Amino acid sequence: MADSMLTSLHIYLPVLLVLCTLATCKCEVPEENITGWLGHDDVRLPCNFTHQDVIVALYWSKEKDPTKAEEEDSTKASYFKKQLNSLEERFTLNEDFSLSISDLRVADEGRYLCQVEFESDRSLLKYQTLIVYARVSTPEIEQCDHKATGNESHTFCSMRTPNTHPFDLTCRATGFKPNVTLQWMSSVDTMQSNTEPYQMKTLSDGTLEQKITIIVTAHPDMDQSYTCTVNGEATNGTERSSTITVRFDPEKFPTQFIIIFSVLGFFILIVFIAIITVLCRGATTRTIEELRKSIKDYTLKIPGSDDKATAKIGLYGEMGAGKSTFINSIEFAYNGERSQPTGARGDTAGGHSIIRSCLPLTDYISLFDNRGMRDFSLSYVDKYMKEISDEREAGTQTRLLDEEIHCVVFVYRHSDANKKQEAERFLEKFSTQLRQYFGYSAFVVVTHADSLSKETKADLKETFSPNCDKLWFLENYTDDTEDKEKSISFLKFLKAALHRCDVAIVNIERRKTQWKKKWFFQRWLGW
To answer: What residue numbers bound the domain in which 188 lies?
Structure first.
């Protein structure tokens, strides 16, 4: 029956794809599952479709995992104005519109959407579900040191015990996905674990770790062997095992040595904790220094020129949202001090910016605080798009492409549900026009993050994520007391914004070159 269903899918899928491209509405084709192995070869997600129409844009995005409140929808790659754009380092958009993912991670697992927009306003939705498997390690027995056997799927070790008291043997398998079966076997039978059913936890990289423990006793007259085996899909067809041999050894270990080693071990533990504390503080400081250096050294050579471009980051939002304070906070995180007190940059009226102001953070990075909105009226969208594209006057056809905003940031301060709905409606139109112009949406920064509950943050993520590339919750600096973790958050935001500027600057220079060619042919050849 499964074979007949698969045959039917292969017969009708091309027909369905053709009907989708001929329809005048969004069309969704059947979903496919793709399996990849952690850390192995690249995985390619296909976006197959039959079309006769001209493709205007194509977007690959990963849907939010509903079980992870901190995760959000994100655009991985796009095709816009005949240009292939990969928006994240490990994600590559290929010529056939498939999406390649390198250095596969468990976090990459999920549902991906390939959305195709045609010139005739038709669109096509193609979903792919990526399943990530991770190969299990050879099991380790915690009570002894393992030795190689020449077979990487099997190890062995031995241990001595001075008495016949019962003791634990614990076997651990790590780094696998999906689940495996871990069991102990003696020379005669399978042994039951004394932990029910077993110990399982999720590791930081998303893979799993499983432990199984049995209670054994040494036999005075003979050595005893116990083997721990692991089976399941995560073995990739190869059974893995470890064997331990338990020997009875009646030698006595002097009691005075036990006391001495216990005291020495306690002292070493105290010293170790102190060292780790110092190292953690030092690691945070080094992280800030590395981020500041990378930002200070940031440059981007303009394609086809020896000149270096200036990355321009523009902030847009309602009056009182905290744009000026946000810029001051970025400056404080970068320099460790402000050139002016909080809220004092540019001309303001009651804390509200009344003219567009600029902070040249470095010779090649500038942040713009644009005039704030009195409300979320949709009329501000066209006004902001003219500022972003540097169209200085209404009706102007010539744009100074070297003064365009490269990374658009929408700054929002939450107060109530009505305001959130108005902001959502504004951001939806704003992001639509940004995608048409840049090929990607705005970043969204929610200020006063410390005053928001987890539930409110989750609600804002669900509301804004469909209309933004990345969502940040940040608490502005309000005094000159440095918080290293807060500084790291602001510097990481700035790094992400500079990456977005890199993509935009390259696209702008391409448009500039195309415009110059078009002007030459029209001016001198009359084409």
So the answer is: 140-252
